[in-house]
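Let us practice reading a record.
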Amino acid sequence: MNKLLPILLLIFLSITVQSQESKFLRTFKVCSMSEVTILPANLLWSDMEYDYNPILGQQEEVWNYGYEQGVNVSIYSFLYGLRYNAYEQSDHLALGINVVPDIQLSTVVEAEGFLALNAPVYLSIDFGAGATNRSVKDYGGFIGFGYEYNLIPLIIFGASETDKRQSWLQPLLISGYRFWNKNDRLFEFAFKYGFGNKNLEPGDEQSSIFRAQSFQLSYGWFIGY
């Protein structure tokens, strides 16, 4: 059920757009070779051996672990953003609730898989152009924080036990810049950083394993603005 929450929230917000159009804003954005995700570590094997402890004068159990960590590289990503302004302090300043599902045409290094899903839900402080549907500013931007759900890969080709689909939640930080282009469209550039855990076994520490992370640089425009 947790996996469906971002999608259900998006459907709910979409249904209510018609009744509260003035507080909803929508965007369409893409990433072109500008989205990379480091997956949590995947445990491959573990074994136990005994090691003599001279201080205690006895044998102790020592566990060893082997991990694999994949990297998802997106060739092209498509993002549909829906924002509801929960509070509008003025025409040029608002507090928004954002849902931005992201489908990635991607491949996973170290695993035989294709496609990925990233579904962020976050709060944002929006200012200037694009803050509300009534803003007349030429420039604007936003900062935000929240959580994102990742499901990688969507399609698995390999039959190996190590080719597994991974899903996890992690915090995110995001910021963006907006401006009107020559075609009278409000454009947006945004950078998002997500950061999770290493997913190591309890008590294990390995410097060669990175924490789960996502890096995304997107660009696009507002719909019907």
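A brief commentary: The chain has a mean pLDDT of 85.
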